[in-house]
Write a structure and sequence with these properties.
- The protein is of the alpha/beta class.
- It has a single domain (about 5-170, about 270-380), classed as FAD/NAD(P)-binding domain.
- Helix content is about 40%, strand content about 30%.
- It has helices spanning about 10-20, 45-55, 60-65, 105-115, 160-170, 235-240, 245-255, 285-290, 295-315, 320-350, 355-380, and strands at about 5, 25-30, 40-45, 65-70, 70-75, 80-85, 100-105, 120-125, 130-135, 140, 145-150, 150-155, 175-185, 195-200, 205-210, 215-220, 260-270, 275, 280.
- The chain has a 7-stranded mixed β-sheet with strand order 6-5-14-15-16-13-17, with helices on both faces.
- A hairpin with a 4-residue loop joins β9 (about 130-135) and β10 (about 140).
- α1 (about 10-20) packs parallel to α4 (about 105-115), α1 runs parallel beside α9 and α2 (about 45-55) runs parallel beside α9 (about 295-315).
- The longest helix has about 30 residues, at about 320-350.
Length: about 375
Amino acid sequence: MTKIVIVGGGIAGASLAIALKRQSVDVVLVEKDPHWTPSSSGIFLYANGLESVRTLGVLDAVLERGWASDGRNVYLTADGSFITETHYPSRDPAHVPPIVGIKRSDLHRALADEVQRLGVDIKLGLTVDSFEDRGPQVIARLSDGSEIACDGLIGADGIRSSIREQLFGKMTPEFTGFGTWRSVHKKPKEIDVKIMMMGVGKRLGIMPISDDQLYIFATTNEPSKPLYDTTRMHEIMREKLAEFKGPAAALLDGLMSPEGVLYTAVEEMALPLPWNKGRVLIIGDGAHACTPYMGQGGAMALEDSILLAPQIAASSDLAATFTAFGASRHERCSFVRKVSRQVGDAGGKELPDDVDARNKRLQTQGQADVDSFYARMFAGT
């Protein structure tokens, strides 16, 4: 039986562990967090990502924990005035919603429960400090001094992947000049749709993530990549987003402590081909981290997993399989990364005089842009 060591228990690593076990591949999952708990902000998955969740067999668990939308996306100005409404598609709306909002911790729990149910060998609180590809086998040396002999090693350990650095040397993610602000709130009954509020050079989104919670996600220009006072994060978030009124105002006013705010610099990673050396491969954000503007980072990680697993199970030459896998994924992941970056850059560079033209374009071209993008997404799976 083929044996694979996966480093990293996030979306890419956990979903790959599930997909491999369903292909009768022996899996060891190594995760450095001894508690295996992600941040508690929100995430949303569009239909192409949810199709991968269904393939993994955990769609029901995700739907039970999250909030399924009919696909509506309402655009408002910063003062809360209506601009237009677009609709996200699904190829199978009776079974796969166009979009689901969910807490990251709840998505993680759905994946982790299935990893455990399938009997994956999970090693928490450990890292792979070094490895050696000996041709027929890879020897992974863990931080507790133990070794694992396996047929292949897969780095799914995020944008600052240790495995990538050991494989290819130090590679610094590219800072885009923007920051993201996230916070979770009690959901007012009247908010039952995804909302995008369009400021000048800023965006603020509101998305339900359960029957009683929603989360705010916002982007701001942060060209100097500042480090903010962690004791004032709630105050700084309110100050940064003070221009947003309408449904955002009461939510922002409700930020009373820094513990509920997550700020991150927006970075990208575009790993050149090949994504592997021999029997060691990089997937997920370590290979193709994108900006958040198209909401596709999680979907691309999920796709990596469901496409890679059957290839591993059928492979007689993992090194060749890993090289071919990277080549097959590179164009699609690059397309998503470039489109997302273009959307972010266009919004971040807006001036007050650009607002009327922006709103007019959303009204006349917004739905066509959505349809074009998701036609491309669905065509590739």
